[in-house]
Amino acid sequence: MTKNNFEKLNNSNIEFFESAKLSLLDPLGLYLANDVKWIKLNQNWNSLKFPVVMGGKGQSILLLHGFDSSFLEFRRIYKSLKKNFQVIVPDLLGFGFCPRCATNELNPSKIISYLIDLINTLKLTKNLKIVGASMGGSIALKLAFEIPDSIDKIILLSPAGLFGEPKSIPFPLNQIGASFLGLPQVRKSLCRQAFAFPDECVGEMEEQIASIHLGCKGWRNSLASFAKSGGFAGTHKYIQNIPIKTLCGENDRILGKKEIRNISNVEKLNFVGLQKCGHLPHLDLSSLSSKIIQDYFLE
């Protein structure tokens, strides 16, 4: 693919984001989206521009979203956190509103390499705090393993992929699975499953944000490529001596009771169970989660 073609695809991606942003129903989502900067990375990523939310001043916090999500996942804690910190919320490589033409194969190693290049580009190489949600929790542990001298503290929110082994999903099952995840009823069901009390907490705004990035060109192929790679698994082995606090909802139907029990048994994870909370503490209990994050990082 020529440089001009990459630029056209990148510009098309940015145009899609700007259009999607205007359609957001959730005012907190729009507030967050208005702080997006498009950061140009080096030739490793075809000199493309990537969406990164940046706001606030002070110590730097990097927020890492979960599988098949976007930076919009952090809409309910962003405004509070940016009062006391510089908050950086990238879309992970191959997810959210990222240009899907950045790489032909999406795998954990490339996601980590992307984050390291982004951290270096933004000069966030000292005393960086990380919050990782769901799959973002596994990514936080692997990232800290790769650049331990740059990381100060970590908070994990319902971390997924800490145990087990990667399981590659071969072609064509990876493509079929990705297509299935794109079905409106499947998206709606997954969105509801993530919340502790979906009948009370899930409406049109939540369902829109859970699916809005699916309109990005190349969404299905990126998801299929990641599935083929096996994704993140067994990342508890990357735990360092960096301080960690882990929050999990006691009503988490995504992780399940066995996985939560395994997490609680790892002493270094400093497990905290949250009542009346599902897989998304930063959404189900946003005020409490924000307070815990700020108190821990300001200690």
UniProtKB/TrEMBL annotation:
Residue ranges annotated for the AB hydrolase-1 domain, each copy included = 61-188
* Record has Lyase as a keyword: no
Keyword annotations: Hydrolase
- The membrane spanning regions, by residue number, are none
What InterPro entries does this protein map onto? AB_hydrolase_1, AB_hydrolase_fold
- Matching Gene3D superfamilies: alpha/beta hydrolase
Q: Does the keyword Hydrolase apply?
A: yes
Task: Tell me the superkingdom of the source.
Answer: Bacteria
A GO molecular function held by the record: hydrolase activity
| Pfam family name, one | Abhydrolase_1
**Entries under PANTHER family matching the protein:** ALPHA_BETA-HYDROLASES SUPERFAMILY PROTEIN, HYDROLASE
Q: What protein name does the entry list?
A: Alpha/beta hydrolase fold-containing protein
The gene for this chain is todF
